[in-house]
Amino acid sequence: MKRFFFTILSFIMMLFILASCGGQKPEKIRLAEVTRSVFYTPLYIALSEGLFKEEGLDVELKTTWGGDKTMTALLSNGADIALVGSETSIYVNAQGASDPVINFAQLTQTDGTFLVARNDAGHFSWDDLKNKTFLGQRKGGMPQMAGEFVLKQKGIDPKKDVDLIQTIDFANIANSFASGTGDYVQLFEPQASIFEREGIGRIVASFGKESGRIPYTTFMAKQSYLTKNEEAVEKFTRAVYKAQQWVETHSAKEAAESIQDYFKDTELSIIESSIERYKQQRSFALEPVLAEKEWNQLQTIMDEAGELPKRTPHQELVNTRIAEKVTKNH
Questions:
Q1: Among 157-161, 168-172, 295-299, where is mean pLDDT lowest?
Q2: Which fold has domain 113-211?
Q3: Are 143 and 111 in contact (CB under 8 A)?
Q4: Looking at the record's lineage, which domain of life comes first (predicted)?
């Protein structure tokens, strides 16, 4: 009997030791992404390659479909961190938020949308858009503002020269075009390439190439969350940086194979070509530091679109300290 109890006691002690050696329970972070797109490949790499887990984090990802919905989730504590356009933090700040939303890590550095034409003879000119119906993105959102910025550079007044539709919900834009609405549409990948494969339209231009470097999509959190969870945010940012470097040093095919589970209804070849297109135009940021020059360019685009509430200094809504620490020590 003594031997039996000794055996049980030894077993319990062994379990305790093994549990102790296993380290602390991963810290959970609830992350809301504004849409599901190959544009965010580094994020999915951080998840699929276990880079968040390496940092002791359990990141729970949900798609909130639209900048307004994503920011609502963040402000109402439905998410800890949001991946969304930087312009949303400016809008919130202009409303006098007592707990401002701070951009702490940049994921993409160009516009991620493409111009898809329903009918194209193979000799595209920006003037082709004149007097045509353009199915654009949500008013005040970064895709629409960057799109208008490019159109103006090409000598097209988006308010006069095209029939601009902005009343369709973000999640339904692609379906609306597929059902016959609009001559042109502004889409992210892989949707743009899927439409091209299905013969619904053809990619004729890249807004990313035309609009230049801007902090298009960033990770952000409320100031209170950053203050209370700085160590976790640093780990999160480190994982993002590792993922950005992973994407840079691996082929589009390798990246596509790694993130395929996030696009189960999309052919692997489409995912690969979409990633390659983004890599070629340098859409993926190579590091998470959001530079002041890019922040100012963002506000210039917002101003030209008539959507900038007021100029906001870089240091007021951008925290580069965490990202700089991560990139310096890696």
A1: 168-172
A2: D-Maltodextrin-Binding Protein; domain 2 (3.40.190)
A3: yes
A4: Bacteria
What confidence tens digit (pLDDT) does each residue in 298-315 have? 999 999 999 999 999 999
pTM above 0.85, yes or no: yes
The pLDDT tens digits for 93-133 are 999 989 999 999 999 999 999 999 999 878 899 999 999 99
**Could you tell me the residue ranges of all domains in the chain?**
27-110+214-329, 113-211
The token pair that represents 23 in the structure block: 């380290």
Superfamily of domain 27-110+214-329: Periplasmic binding protein-like II (3.40.190.10)
Cβ atoms of 125 and 184 closer than 8 Å: no
Same fold for the domain at 27-110+214-329 and the one at 113-211?
A: yes
Three-state secondary structure call for residue 317: helix
3-state secondary structure of 323: helix
Q: Which pLDDT band, with edges at 50, 70 and 90, does 297 fall under? A: very high
List all residues 6 or more positions away from 128 whose beta carbon is below 8 Å from its beta carbon: 117
What end-to-end distance do the CA atoms of the chain give, in Å? 56
